[in-house]
């Protein structure tokens, strides 16, 4: 399985941002399951990011990280592709 994501170290915190489909962040159970799965892979806190039809991001996860990420331009995030089993 391939995912788009980024590992970010900011303000003394290291966390991952993982791109998901919008329906995932709109469903608390699916979002919680996704975060749990990705946390096992990355071993650090994870927030989810989905984009609407206009490309505007929505972040879901730890409130402090999600709030911080909402102030960061999506173009400044160091995206890369990860392969997970």
Textual characterization of the structure:
The protein is of the alpha+beta class. The chain has helices spanning 22-25, 28-42, 63-69; strands at residues 2-10, 13-19, 46-51, 57-60, 80-83. The longest helix is centred in the middle third of the chain and has 15 residues, at 28-42. The protein is globular, with a radius of gyration of 12 Å.
Biggest sheet strand order reads 4-3-2-1-5
Distance between the termini: 6 Å
Helix amount: 25-40%
Give the overall silhouette: globular
Q: Would you tell me the structural class of the helices and strands?
A: alpha+beta
Please indicate the percent range of residues in DSSP E strands (runs of 2 or more).
35-45%
Tally of separate domains: 1
Low-confidence stretches: none
Order of helices and strands: EEHHEEHE
Largest pleated sheet: 5 strands, mixed
pLDDT averaged residue by residue: 96
Cα radius of gyration in angstroms: 12 Å
Count the beta strands. Answer: 5
**Helical run tally:** 3
């Amino acid at each position: 399985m391939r995912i788009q994501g980024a590992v970010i170290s900011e303000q003394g915190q290291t966390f991952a941002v993982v791109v998901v489909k919008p329906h995932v962040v709109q469903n608390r159970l699916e979002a919680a399951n996704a975060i749990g799965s990705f946390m096992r892979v990355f071993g650090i806190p994870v927030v989810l990011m989905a984009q609407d039809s206009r490309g505007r991001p929505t972040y879901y996860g730890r409130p402090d990280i999600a709030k911080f990420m909402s102030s960061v331009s999506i173009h400044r995030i160091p995206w890369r592709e990860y392969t997970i089993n």
